[in-house]
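Supplementary Methods S3. Complex input for the beta-D-fucopyranose-bound model.
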Amino acid sequence: MSDTFPPGFLWGTATAAYQIEGAARENGRTPSIWDTFSHTPGKVARGDTGDIAVDHFHRRAEDVRLMADLGVNAYRFSVSWPRVQPTGRGPAIQRGLDFYRALVDDLLGHGIEPVLTLYHWDLPQELEAAGGWPERETAYRFAEYARSVGEALGDRVQRWTTLNEPWCSAFLGYASGVHAPGRTDPAAALRAAHHLNLGHGLAGQVLRSVLPADARLSVSLNPSAVRARTQSPADLDARRRIDALANRIFTGPMLNGAYPEDLFADTARITDWSFVHAADLATIRRPLDSLGINYYAPAVVSAATDEFAGRHDGHGESEHSPWPGADSVAFHQPPGELTEMGWSVDPSGLYDLLMRYTREAPGLPLMVTENGAAYADRPGADGTVHDPDRIRYLHGHLAAVRRAIDDGADVRGYFLWSLLDNFEWAYGYGKRFGAVHVDYETQRRTPKSSALWYARLAGTGVLPEVPVG
Ligand code: FCB
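Predicted complex, serialized as C-alpha cells:
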C-alpha cells in the first residue's frame, strides 16, 4: 500500500457555527432551535449553551492564523442561518454576512480553501415555531436563505455544501428528541427527512443559478456502516431496515431519484408518505460534484429478542427511538476500544463506506468531511497537551482512506473533526474533539500533539508508518 496521498488532496479541519461562534445575540442574530434547546433545563449536560462557545466570532483572525500555522489547506465551516437571516425569511442582513466575508477573506489570504456548509442544524427558531422541518415550507425557506448566501459569497467561495447530516436533523431532532428542537414524533421525523431532502434539492437548484459555473456542490451525510451481528435472516433483515432509515432514505432520492420501497413498507404504520409530491424526486436528484461522508464508528444490529432488547446506538439517552418503525432491531456495542463518546474505534467502517459509495455512485468524487474522536485531554504541568489516543485514531482512519484510494475510491479530501474543542451538542463542553485544546475559562488555544502530527501529514501528504506523536 502506498503511504502517499494524491496531489491536490484537501487537508482540512471542520467546525460548525453554533459549536464555536458564541456571540449569540450580537449583530442582529436571533435564536436558533439550538439556542432554545440548550436554554431548556435538562436538555444539555450541565446546562451548557452556545452563548459564548469558544468565542470564534471575536477570535476569527486568531483561529485562521492557527490553521495557517498548522499548514492545512482547507477549512469546512458552517454559516449560522439566524445570523444572516434572523427571521428565516426575507432579505439577509449585511452585518451577518460580513462576518463570513471576513472569515473567507482571511482564509483565502492564508491559502486555505473555504468549504462552506449552509445548514449545520441551527434552524431559526421562528421557522420551528411555524412547524420546522416537518413542514414543506421550511424547504422553500432554506432555498431562499441559500440564495442570499450564494449571492453574497459566490465570488469567493467555490465549494458549497447544502446540509450537514440530515439524519441527525430529522431523527435526533424530531424522533428521539436528544437534539433540537427535541420533538418525539416519528411521523414528523419522516416528514422532516423528506423536507430536508427537498431543501437540499431546491437549494442546489438556486445555487447553480447564482454561483459561477465552476462552483462545486455537495452534501455531507453520516451514512451508517451498519453490520449484522450474525448472518441469520432475522439479523440481516435488521441491518436492511437500519440501512434504509440511516442511508438509503437520503442517498435514494439524492443519487437515484427514488425512495427505497422497503422504507415505505417498514414505516407504513407510521405514515403513508403522501407528503412526497411526484415532482419532488427530480428536484432532489441534482447532480453533485462530490459526496461528503462523515464517519465516527460503525453500528452493529440484530433482531431484538428477549436477550437483546437494549438500544445502544450511541446517539444519546432517550426513551424514544430515533429509528421509526424499527422496534424489532437491537443495537450492540461492538467489542474493543472505545472513545470518550463510547463509540468504538473501527476504521474498517470508513473503508467500507468509501468502497460502497464508489460502487453505488460511480464517477462521483468522495470527501471525508468529518472524522475524529473525543478524549479527555488535559494540559500537563508544562502546559502542553498530549493526545496519543487521538493520533492513533486518526492514523488508523487515514490508513483506511489510503487503502480505499488504492482500491479505486476517488477520495479528494479529509477534514478532521474538529479544529477546536467545542460545544458538543447534548454533551455540551464535556466532550473534547479538538486538535487544538481550548481552556474554556480563558479561551486560550493550545495545539495538542495530534494537531502537530496532522500538520506534518498535511505538509507532506505522507502518512507516517507509525503514529508517533
Ligand atoms: C457529527 C456532527 C458534528 C460533531 C460530531 C462529533 O455528528 O456533525 O457537529 O458534533 O458529530
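The two ends are 22 Å apart (CA to CA). The chain is about 40% helix and 15% strand.
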